[in-house]
Design brief:
- The protein is an alpha+beta fold.
- It has one domain: Roll (PH-domain like).
- Helices cover 38% and strands 21% of the residues.
- The strands form two sheets. Strands 1-2-3-4 form a four-stranded antiparallel sheet. Strands 5-6-7 form a three-stranded antiparallel sheet.
- Strand 3 and strand 4 form a beta hairpin.
- Helix 4 crosses helix 5.
- The protein is elongated.
- The two termini are 32 Å apart.
- 11% of the residues are buried.
């Protein structure tokens, strides 16, 4: 499902969570496949211990069913969750979408961001991923975890915030900073760098 963009809005970045989250499920899938293959090899032999021949078909079926169930639980479900999650940065919003049949969506407007914080574990430093903690003021925080290339993503956000029109800071009200005599009001600095410093963006 595509995002409904507002007039003048465009997509800056569209990505999925870091692939690092699939490392453990992938290793678990390899263990399950190896164990299942070993079990099938044992009970598929032509010569089995006395009394085991009659149970061999049932054991083979049971091993296959168990292996499929474990694969779904350990690997396929995390894979679907990863594939169904999107981080979308537009020129006005940061959006997290998750799910296929049942979709959840979290959205924050760039105009409401006071500070962008990055948190990384030791492993995430090597993979260059991490978590974006969005400070919305008044002790309100939103966390976007496992963002790939998190510092690059943050820089895209800072650039998008710096390019916001001044009127966007007033909840969409069309305001112009002009003095009464028609000259420009020097009380408003329209430079993106100054806006970023004033709001504490890093």
């Amino acid at each position: 499902m595509r995002i409904r963009l507002e007039p003048g809005e465009h997509v800056v970045v569209r990505t999925r969570p870091d692939l690092r989250r699939l490392i453990l499920p992938f290793c678990g899938a390899l263990v399950i496949l190896a164990a299942g293959g070993f079990g099938l090899g044992v009970f598929s032999r032509s010569q089995l211990p006395l009394g085991w021949e009659q149970w061999a078909p049932a054991m083979v079926t049971g091993i296959l069913v168990l292996a499929l169930l474990l694969l779904f639980r350990v690997f396929i479900r995390p894979l679907l969750q990863w594939a169904g999650t999107r981080y979308i940065l537009t020129s006005r919003r940061l959006i997290r979408r998750a799910g296929f049949s049942r979709r959840s969506e979290r959205e924050v407007r760039l105009t409401g961001i006071f500070q962008i914080i990055i948190e990384q574990s030791l492993m995430e430093r090597f993979t260059r991923g991490g978590s974006l903690i969005i400070d919305l003021g008044r002790d309100r925080f939103l966390s976007f975890r496992e963002v790939p290339q998190v510092y690059t993503f943050k820089q895209y956000m800072v650039t998008a915030i710096g390019e916001l029109p001044l009127t966007a800071m007033f909840d969409g009200v069309d305001m112009e900073a002009e003095s009464m005599d028609g000259t420009d009001d020097d009380g408003w600095d329209r430079s993106g760098d100054e806006r970023q410093q004033r709001h504490g963006w890093n």
